[in-house]
Design brief:
Helices cover 43% and strands 14% of the residues. The protein is an alpha+beta fold. Strands 1, 2, 3 and 4 form a four-stranded antiparallel β-sheet that branches. Strand 3 (42-48) and strand 4 form a beta hairpin. The relative contact order is 0.17.
Length: 138
């Protein structure tokens, strides 16, 4: 799908998950919210619906400026991720948190969980040499 989306211009991509029973309601709510925020965008959602994972991608409106569209990435993420969380889902599915969602993690998980993640990381990687600066630093 990624290769098919490239000729369409910019794409704001999400790798999210929601409970399987919530997929239809999430899809309706997300499309309504995204279109209200950015008229003319095209939702291209696909993925592993059988386990609740959705690649919720949004293609720029036809003829829109790609850089301007991609510049709205954070605003669109707030909309999509906010809805995902309201449906009891996760802002990361199979691709994990990585660098793009690292800062969001601290905002959506309790401080005790973040502390435990740091402690586990430090226990396994006291020198901070394994995947440095990615999600959790030692």
């Amino acid at each position: 799908m990624s290769e098919a989306q490239k000729p369409e211009g910019g794409s704001i991509k999400h790798d999210v998950s929601v409970p399987i029973s919530s997929i239809p309601a999430f899809m309706r709510a997300a499309e309504k919210a995204v279109l209200a925020s950015m008229p003319g965008v095209r939702v291209c959602a696909f993925g592993h619906l059988g386990d609740g994972n959705i690649h919720y991608n949004i293609s720029q409106p036809i003829g829109a400026d790609k850089a301007e569209f991609i510049g709205k990435w954070r605003d669109v993420n707030k909309i999509v991720h906010g809805l995902v969380l309201s449906f009891g889902g996760s802002i990361s599915a199979e691709h994990g948190i990585g660098q793009l969602k690292r800062d969001e993690l601290a905002a959506i998980r309790p401080a005790i969980e973040i502390d435990l993640m740091h402690r586990i990381k430090h226990a396994f990687d006291p020198a901070g040499i394994m995947n440095p600066g990615k999600v959790i630093t030692a």
